[in-house]
Predict the structure of glycogenin glucosyltransferase.
Amino acid sequence: MPVTDQAFVTLATNDMYSQGALVLGKCLRRHETSRLTVVMVTLHVSQGARAALAGVFHQVKEVEVLDSSDWAHLSMMGRPELGVTLTKLHCWALTEYTKCVFLDADMLVLCNVDELFDREDFSAAPDPGWPDCFNSGVFIFRPSLQTHGRLLQRAKENGSFDGGDQGLLNSFFSDWATEDISKHLPFIYNLSTSTIYTYLPAFQQYGREAKIIHFLGAVKPWHCTYDHQKGEVSLGDGSLCHPMLSPFLKQWWAEYWRPGAPSFTQADVWQSPEAHHQKAGSIGTTHQEDLSLHVEQPSTPTASKETGTHSADTPPANEGATSDWTHPLDPPPVEEGGSFGSGALESSQSEEPVLELSASIAEVAIHRTAEEEDQEHKRQWEEGCADYLGKDAFDNIRKKLDKFLK
Ligand SMILES: O=c1ccn([C@@H]2O[C@H](COP(=O)(O)OP(=O)(O)O[C@H]3O[C@H](CO)[C@@H](O)[C@H](O)[C@H]3O)[C@@H](O)[C@H]2O)c(=O)[nH]1
Ligand SMILES: [Mn+2]
């Protein structure tokens, strides 16, 4: 039975971030959350994207865009686009729920994380850049129109020290750093991928315990290109991503293409320009336009109907859900018949070309000689694709060095 007065909430103000929200919603469902799921959308989210989101989330709620337009502070972070993150503040107006967990749309949930609802308002994880501040990508809160009003008031009067929601929220919940340690979420609930660059040994040590991955920063998974043929993920400029990041990006794409709920492509999105004529609703007023959609068949979003009411009693079906632990950093499981899967992609039940390809790569790998293996390993090392969790783990490198220096 779903818990109908608690919800996971996310936000998408455009179709790009809607892709992230879609993956997030799919992950939550696949890991059988017992809570409802809500995505707040704004004017510029197209009908195509909304339909896809409605196939995954219990509620698609239109809210007004709030933008700090604070170029000075935002450019200090190199992220002028983040003014709209103030729109996040509207989650406090979702008073049909007693407790919520907000998750950024650039999150990958790796297992069931319903235990987050045991935490109290206001809980969050430290920000990797300034750990006395919390990162506003994951937080537990109790919706309240009073808090919503106070936050908006503060935004109007004082702005935000970083131009986005995180600065404002840290000023508002300023005792988070010192008041109550139980309100500090473990970092594994908001493991920023930037840690790969800032503290690689810790990432190696604890990365396997991660429950939620946060693709924090300017480059998001949907900016990357996934080459099914080569099984490689490259960044926008064509360069290959960091080898430690690759399993998570592949997992993100596997979730994106996982069947059982619709995905949408930019092509779908561009085909629906009528989206831009949607009227914006305003949250927190009696005239708000609630675009929540009843969803009977998540796999057929076009069958959804707009009701104007909240659809807590008709959660999307959970077909295809699995509670399997499919951590991208886990070694690929040995399957019957002795063939190996490809880690992240292996977890997909999809019949996408991805899977067929991973199987053929596995077969090739099995028939390789030891010498060929060594050569391949050397080639990957030289290309900067080190296997930090396996052959190239610190311990193994040290052993090699010790042997060499003897
Ligand atoms: O054009 C945008 C930009 C952001 N978002 C939403 O706002 C969230 C935050 O933006 P994001 O690009 O994820 O920011 P981060 O790179 O994670 O940067 C940090 O700084 C932001 C601004 O303070 C905070 O919102 C983040 O939680 C914090 O992790 C996204 O995940 C989306 O849910 C949109 O819908 N549209
Ligand atoms: Mn984020």
Observations:
- Residues 15-30 form the longest helix (16 residues).
- The chain has twelve helices and 13 strands.
- Residues 104, 106, 137, 214, 216 surround manganese (II) ion (ligand 2) (CB under 6 Å).
